[in-house]
Structure formats: structure tokens, C-alpha cells
Amino acid sequence: MADPALPGAATLIRVVAGSTFREAVRSRTFLGLLIIFAVCVGLSRIVGWVSSTDGNIVTTDLVMSLQAIIGVLVAVATGTALVQSEITNKTLYTVISRPIARWQFVVGKYLGLAAGLALGQAAMLAIGLAYLAATGAEVHRWLLLAGLLTLVEVLVMAAVSLCWTALSSPLLAAVLGLATWFCGHAVTSLPELIHHLKGWQLVVAAGLASLVPNLGQFAYRNQAVYQLPLGWADLAQRLGYGALWIALLVTLTVVVFRRKHL
Length: 262
Description:
Helix content: over 70%
Number of domains: 1
């Protein structure tokens, strides 16, 4: 019978998540990349001015793309540093010596990181849309939808980074995380290349593609700029796809972390 004096799993996860959230939003990497985003958004108008096409369209496209790029960099940099900072500061040993399961620690870490990243994405989206409105570019609901899907992409990359951190060193995990991001977007072009492949090449390509999340599912940014609609069924499918990958990656991280000697 469980000791009634011991906190429940939800409470333990919430404590770890809260601590991780505070650590994430206070980190220099998190704040520094947000500042870089704000500076780059300010400079994006220059590209719009010199563009031979509609300057507002170019600026909007750049702002939405910057949100995704900076968001992924924050997810990879912060995600790979989370557990390592616990080990370096000797706080991990204090945590796992208490009545908390390792799966609770991993889930709490991910939820705290996800909350911090969601806050960062909301801040970047607000800054970007405010800047677009101030410079005369049209702000519409499809940009909000693009921001939501960008957030899902960032959360998937956070789970990727956490998983790589459990399997390797922080530096290698960061490199592998960025490689996964590039591969995840490259997978989108596979249907266009598949007719060039035959036999075992097709099987190998399909097998390798299944090992990484198809991040092109969340790249609605370019369509949103031109106000191309996205149906509810399509949106639900993309959100569900992201949720499944997050669940799979967090589960894999838990399995690895349970076997890790600390």
C-alpha cells in the first residue's frame, strides 16, 4: 500500500515541470535567441524593401520562417542542456534519490521545457505580428494557424533533443538534433524523388524516412502567407501526427533513462 504521506505522480511531475520551466526561461540561451529574433524581425523589412516582389509578402514570409528557425534552435539548445545541467550541478542525484520514478522525472522535464518553449513561441508570434501590423503588412488568422503548427514542430524537436541527450553527450546531441531537423524537412521531398528509386533503394529510402518525423507536416508558413486555407481535418491530422511523435520520443527517452547509470 502506498504511503499517504508521499506525493502522487502528478504532483511530482508538476514540481519537476515547474522547476524546468523556470530554468528554461531564465537561461541565457533562451533569452539571447529571443533577442536575436526581435533584431532579425526588425531587419526583415530591409529585405522586403529591396525585393522585386511584394515587400509585405516577403517580410511576412521571413518573420514566420524566423520564428520556426529560432524556435528550433531554442528547443535543441535548451533541450540538450537540461539533463546535463542537472548532472553538472549535482542536483539530479538529489532528485532521483527521493521517491520519484525516472519516468516522472523525464515527463516533468519535457513538460517544463514544452511550457517554456510555448511561452517563447507566443512571445515571438506576438512580436512578429505586431511588427507586421506596424509596417503595414496584412495580419490574418492563417498566420495564427501557422504559428500553432510551428509550435508543434518546436515541441517535436524538443522531444528529439531530449531523446538524443539521453543517448549521447550534450554537444553530440545538439548536432544530432539539428541533423534530425534537416532530415525531417528533407523527408517532405521524398515523394518527388521516389520515382527515381528502384528495388532495394526504394525500400531503404522508405525505411530511413520512417525513422525521423516528417517536419514538413508543420511547414504551413508559406501557404499561410498567401492565405491558402487549411481544412480542419488536415489540421487535426497534423496535430495528431505531432502528438504521436512526441509520445514515442518521450517514451523512448524514459526507456533509455531507466537503464542509464548515474
